[in-house]
UniProtKB/TrEMBL annotation:
SMART domains: Asparaginase. The active site is at residue 11. Residues 231-323 form the Asparaginase/glutaminase C-terminal domain. InterPro entries: Asp/glu_Ase-like_sf (IPR036152), Asparaginase/glutaminase-like (IPR006034), Asparaginase_C (IPR040919), L-asparaginase_C (IPR027473), L-asparaginase_N (IPR027474), L-asparaginase_N_sf (IPR037152). Residues 345-382 are annotated as: Disordered. This is asparaginase. Its EC number is 3.5.1.1. GO terms for molecular function: asparaginase activity. GO terms for biological process: aspartate family amino acid metabolic process.
Amino acid sequence: MHITFIVTGGTIFQTRDPKTGCMIIGAHLEDIVAPEFLSSLGVHSSLCVDLKVRSGAELTYDTIFAARDAVVAHMARSTAFVLVTGTDTLEEFAFCLDLLLGNVLVAASTSLVVTGAMKPYDIEGYDGRCNVQQAMQVATAPGASRFGVLVTLNDSVHLSRYVRKADSQLMGAFQSHPGPVGQVREGCVRFYYGPPPEATSLRDPRFEVLDAAAVARVSRVAIWVTGVSSFLPEALLPELSGLILAGPGTGSLSAALAEQLAPWTALIPVVLATRCATGNNFDDHYYRGSREKYEARGFLLADFAHLTPVQARTLLVLKLAAGVYSQYNHLRSALPGSPERVAVQCQQPKAASGATGTAVAPPLQTPDDRGEGTLKDGGPNR
Ligand SMILES: NC(=O)C[C@H](N)C(=O)O
């Protein structure tokens, strides 16, 4: 067996620099992975691709694509891949790689497991060594390759589709809302269920041919959290390739914000997500018409069902780069703020301020809203 490691920094490699008192990359993969442990798994050769990133906050789509390219380049030789990274953006990294590569990995019977550490290398109780060992065990376990990209930390194995960093500090930070797909117990990997169809349905073959340059043109997607007395500065919108609104409950928007943003949906994709930790961005079972009333005004909901705002952002960036929404293809040819993009924006309506424009917003009231109120008067009870 051959394992390829890809490393992109993070707490797992960090120590305190005695000279400056600041955190630095003070450890390397060879300090963490014992050759004897590799041999015990039947791994006779390994390789490390260091993408030279300091921490999770520094992660860029360029690095994600460099990792994707490293996997593709070493796929023929490798039985398994272990990606060691900063935990702050680990969930985005894993989710994005699964969208880009999940089907390719499954077809090639190759596993990819992402891991990191919650405690620095020089702190008592350092979890990095154990996490990397368990990631190697999971990556080489029978059946691991049917899942696409997995995440392993703290004895747990998560599907990249469901995992999120739910705590900013503690060891059990990584959680999946349906629970982990597997665990490491008594030194052995146990998978409890196979990949449910929902976990793989977001992979799109068009993502497999994307490159970093295509994504860079559309990656200025902002996440804006709304709630009490919501607002959004109009001046922000021309700077964006897209907007994820993380709204309360099932992604409810105030009537005023919906009025302001509806005309902008002709220019940039505006996705409605929930700011709750889990759950959907609409619920037509309880709040009838809750999807249609926004989709009719140009907001995107259904393609982003049951995703966190961070996941919705990743998916939207890839969809835009792949040209999935032809109405937004103008975003792919010009960077935000460039003269071409500004020219398109100048043609756009400012319905909220009363100016004229080209986007036509349908009426606010949907048949199912009757009697429960409309967006204008506060909307139905969602
Ligand atoms: N535990 C960690 O890895 C957090 C760190 N700040 C990072 O993401 O690089």
